[in-house]
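Notes from the 1:1 (GR / supervisor)

We went over the backlog. Supervisor wanted to see one worked example end to end before approving the batch request, so GR pasted a single chain during the call. The sequence is below; no edits were made to it. Supervisor asked that the structure be written out right there so they could see what the output format looks like.
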Amino acid sequence: MPSAHIVLGHPHTDSFNGHLARTARDALALQGWDVTLSDLAAMRFDPTEGPHRDAAAEYNVQREQRLAFESDLLPAQIREEAERVEKSDLLILQFPL
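Structure output shown during the call:
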């Protein structure tokens, strides 16, 4: 069964973007897709990352992300959302333009 993951990036679940995300979820499910939906605002998703080593060293975002990934130090929410994205055959990012 194909899997889809929808990420809703709007602060109001009852917005037009929220409606579009739920409509996509329902339509895909009716067609037999395994669908997950992450409502980032409802989850209070915190995408921030910080230094994972000696704070005196120069801060480099890519190096910190790699170190966090390799050391299993990514915040749980980020790790869980990344797993949903990796497992999906289809990714829908629904946000205001």
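Supervisor's comment: The chain has a mean pLDDT of 89.
Batch request approved.
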